[in-house]
Design brief:
It is a single chain. It is built from 8 helices and 6 strands, in the order αβααβαβαβααββα. The protein is α/β, with parallel strands linked by helices. The protein has a single domain, classed as Undecaprenyl pyrophosphate synthetase (3-Layer(aba) Sandwich). Helix 2 crosses helix 3 and helix 4 packs parallel to helix 5. The radius of gyration is 20 Å and the shape is globular. Bound molecules: farnesyl diphosphate (FPP). Farnesyl diphosphate binds next to helix 2, helix 3, strand 2 and helix 4. Its cofactor is Mg(2+). This is Isoprenyl transferase. Homodimer.
Length: about 250
């Protein structure tokens, strides 16, 4: 029996891949992807949704338990109104076209962010998709929509402050766990790795508290081009990182 040498190269790095329990993704570059092809920005967003669908499948296949994607930030309100409406409709269309598939694939969807400024029909849709997938036990897909890390911390602070004002919590009882419990992401492990596409190297208000010890991987591809090869490259880079969480390497003297 002959062994194709290409298959050895293929299998070796995958065997040593470390799979993050939580992958965060700042999906950046839809507009530039479109511009580079002489297309409208909205076409970049449509391709971006395809890349997201593909990533969900990859996470399921490779056993990533939690995936958070940044799909609309609280700062994105400064974009042209047409584009905002388009992105909002994209979320509606994504839910309409993919809900059954997500349910079939045992995906639990959580949409984190502020409900302020969202149309009631969109809020109903968000509540509906969360309710219909709440009992699913597979991949947790967290969509950060109308989300800002600072706003999340403000919201958490308000919630804690009202507990204090009501006399149910003493200020000295406030710990990191109190804040954790008041965040949108409560119960979800912090991201092991955060990827940003399009060559930008910023966190842009994404999961600020939760990113305290995340590994960052910046890739040059625009988001619509993020495919399985790029995904595996990210896992390989992550697998080679040594995480110390403020301590020292276990093997160090
Ligand atoms: C980043 O590209 C994309 C966004 C800010 C929003 C659109 C998100 C998606 C298409 C993913 C899926 C969305 C939903 C709602 C499920 P950019 O517009 O910032 O690109 P640029 O930096 O090149 O202008």
């Amino acid at each position: 029996m002959s062994i194709d040498p290409a298959s050895i190269v293929e299998v070796a790095p995958r065997a040593s891949l470390r799979i993050p329990a939580h992958l965060g993704v700042i999906m950046d570059g839809n507009g530039r992807w479109a511009k580079a092809r002489g297309k409208r920005r909205t076409e970049g967003h449509i391709e971006g949704v395809k890349a997201l669908r593909n990533l969900v499948e990859l996470c399921i296949n490779y056993g990533v338990a939690n995936l958070t994607v940044f799909s609309f930030s609280s700062e994105n309100w400064t974009r042209p109104k047409d584009e905002i409406i388009f992105i909002f409709n994209l979320l509606r269309r994504f839910v309409a076209s993919d809900l059954q598939r997500l349910i079939r694939n045992n995906v639990q969807v959580r949409i984190i962010g502020s409900r302020e400024g969202l149309e009631p029909s969109l809020i109903r849709l968000i509540d509906d998709v969360e309710a219909k997938t709440a009992a699913n036990t597979g991949l947790v897909l967290i969509v950060a929509f109308n989300y800002g890390g600072k706003a999340e911390i403000v919201d958490a602070t308000r919630r804690i402050a009202s507990e204090v004002a009501a006399g149910r919590l003493a200020p000295e009882q406030i710990s990191e766990a109190t804040i954790e419990a008041a965040l949108y992401t409560t119960g979800i492990p912090h991201p092991d790795v955060i990827v940003r596409t399009s060559g930008e190297q910023r966190i842009s208000n994404f999961l600020l508290w939760q990113a305290a010890y995340s590994e960052f991987v910046f890739v040059d591809d625009y988001w619509p081009d993020f495919n399985e090869t790029a995904f595996l490259r990210v896992l390989e880079i992550f697998s080679q990182r040594v995480r110390r969480f403020g301590g020292i390497e276990a093997a160090s003297p």
